[in-house]
């Protein structure tokens, strides 16, 4: 069996934000890390910042790109020990005001749900061969949705449910399925609207990686755990609590966006 320091890890959406911080910290642990993303320029910049990162440009929502990514990993490394489905996006809108709703819904479902599920299926033969692990990145918001990101919360809740089913099925094949529930993290993902209580991406990644290395199935990072606990005991209060962060002038803010 490979030692932890010899893992080959693939991280989607790894050129910035939490994905990049995870890649950087895993690289420091001597893991062999591959990151993918849509922007070649961002991937090359990430590679300059962290010596040793392997990069591959692709859009994981496109079937041909997923197949090309699998071919690249298979031919160059012939192995994968951990697949981290990190890539994601969030649309903020008011339901009665939003335009192009169908387009927004489709884009979020493709990125946040279909891509990680289909990419997992693509890499499953290698993961089974190596008794590897699948890591799906969701959010504390699967337990109590933030009203101005309604479809983001729905897609992550769906991925959470799928993750639980994957865990049951794939355990019989020796594949471990883990899930990271992040709280608000101050990254470009927030679109400049990170709440005051958002944590830094390096801290978020550090906590997540510690949980992964310990073999935890579910890793609730910081406030995501508190939200989970409150939602278990008082679900309605959890929803009210998380939506207190929505500013009173949210309509003006969204129009500005």
Describe this structure in words.
There is one protein chain. The protein has 257 residues and is of the alpha/beta class. The chain contains 9 helices and 7 strands, in the order βαβαβαβαβαβαβααα. Strands 3-2-1-4-5-6-7 form a 7-stranded parallel beta sheet, sandwiched between helices. β2, α2 (40-49) and β3 (54-57) form a beta-alpha-beta unit.
Summarize the structure.
The protein is of the alpha/beta class. It has helices at 17-28, 40-49, 63-76, 101-129, 150-171, 201-213, 223-233, 235-242, 250-256, and strands at 8-12, 32-37, 54-57, 82-85, 133-139, 176-182, 218-220.
List the helices and strands and how they pair.
Elements lengths: L7 E5 L4 H12 L3 E6 L2 H10 L4 E4 L5 H14 L5 E4 L15 H29 L3 E7 L10 H22 L4 E7 L18 H13 L4 E3 L2 H11 L1 H8 L7 H7 L1
Parallel strand pairs: 1-2, 1-4, 2-3, 4-5, 5-6, 6-7
């Amino acid at each position: 069996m490979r030692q932890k320091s010899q893992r080959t890890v693939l991280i989607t959406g790894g050129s910035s934000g939490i994905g990049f911080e995870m890649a950087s910290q895993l690289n420091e642990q001597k893991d062999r890390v591959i990151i993918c993303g849509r922007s070649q320029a961002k991937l090359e910049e990430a590679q300059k910042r962290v010596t040793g990162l392997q990069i591959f440009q692709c859009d994981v929502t496109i079937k041909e790109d997923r197949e090309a990514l699998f071919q690249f990993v298979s031919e160059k490394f012939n192995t994968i020990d951990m697949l981290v489905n990190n890539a994601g996006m969030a649309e903020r809108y008011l339901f009665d005001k939003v335009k192009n709703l169908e387009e927004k819904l489709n884009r979020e479902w493709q990125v946040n749900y279909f891509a990680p599920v289909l990419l997992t299926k693509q890499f499953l033969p290698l993961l089974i061969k190596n008794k590897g692990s699948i890591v799906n990145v969701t959010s504390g918001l699967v337990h109590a949705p933030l009203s101005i990101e309604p479809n983001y919360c729905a897609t992550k809740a769906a991925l959470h449910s799928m993750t639980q089913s994957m865990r049951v099925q794939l355990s019989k094949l020796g594949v471990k399925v883990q899930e990271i529930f992040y709280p608000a993290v101050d990254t470009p993902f927030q679109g400049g609207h990170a709440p005051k209580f958002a944590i830094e991406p390096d801290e978020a990644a550090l906590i997540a990686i510690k949980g992964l290395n310990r073999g935890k199935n579910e890793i609730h990072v910081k406030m995501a755990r508190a939200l989970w606990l409150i939602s278990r005991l008082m679900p309605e209060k959890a929803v009210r609590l998380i939506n207190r962060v929505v500013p009173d002038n949210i309509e003006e803010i969204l129009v500005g966006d």
